TrEMBL record:
SMART domains: REC. It comes from Actinomadura spongiicola. Pfam families: HisKA_3 (PF07730), Response_reg (PF00072). This is Response regulator. The lineage of its organism: Bacteria, Bacillati, Actinomycetota, Actinomycetes, Streptosporangiales. The keyword Transferase applies. One of its GO terms (molecular function) is phosphorelay sensor kinase activity.
Amino acid sequence: MTDVLPPCPAASKTYSVLVAEPETSARAVLAAALGAAPRLDVVGEVADADEVVLRAARTRPDVVVMGAGAPGMSVAAATRRLRNATDPPEIVVLADPADHARGREVLRAGASCLLPRDSPPERLVCAIPAVAAGYVVMAPAFADQMMEGSTRRDLHDVLGRTLAAINRKGELVARLLVAQPDRARAELETVLALARRSIAEVRALAAGYHLGDLATEIEQVRADLEVMGVRVETARVPPALPRPIQEAFGWVAREAAANVIRHSEAGHCRIEIWTGGRTAHLRITNDGARRAGPGAAGTGLAGLAARLRVVGGALVHGPGPDLTYRVEATAPLGG
């Protein structure tokens, strides 16, 4: 992974920036570099995390840039205070990539950007408009550390459904732009809402992601599929289903929904959950499957089999009659 950021986005406005850095010389360099950049306005310089909260309340910057070594309250605590404001700024934190515990902490608190303390000024100048526009920016040096605690499988399974929906909705917007601009704008609002959710999911993943209960996961799957125009039938989650099985089935539901979005033209999806013979079952069936079938070329369903093995379960999936596709998970009930 190379240590680069995407090309600088074109700034559509002038962004106000507050700088918090304990080292006097580093603070001066930061303020000078940001102040010289087009469409960036440095509205203040402070030396510690306590003062940045007070100064931000007065100046109301768009973005706060904080060095992770700032004295006073912790940078994570300052980030949390800043993000809880009525009109919160976006937070850029400059830290040591080796200190991944601190990286997780500031992301959990609400930071939108993590860059190494020795990043060249032009990289920071590029990052500020990006985070002000709603993006999360993380230098690869930090991303590599985050992956130690959140596996690549977790990244795939947490973000897969949301990113698949963004992709499909984005394609729809592109088709509608000329012929139906009003509908295109409405669909774009959905894309933006999904993008905001993906940002929250990235932060949750960095902090140590945990699924909600199965009923909550099924409801989110239903909502996402219905946004994509799929009619969904769902069943009530059986009472007293053990938490480990709920979590394993929640991952299955997420990946199955992502595959419905990616790999089908589904109009209907049925989600069934039941227990019988000391076994819990989850079955998800959709119509509109493409000939190759969902997941045929991917590794998501294979990863789910590994998750189910943890609870002694198994996964079967494959095409059915009339262009349907079925994903079914089973897990033994204790006792």
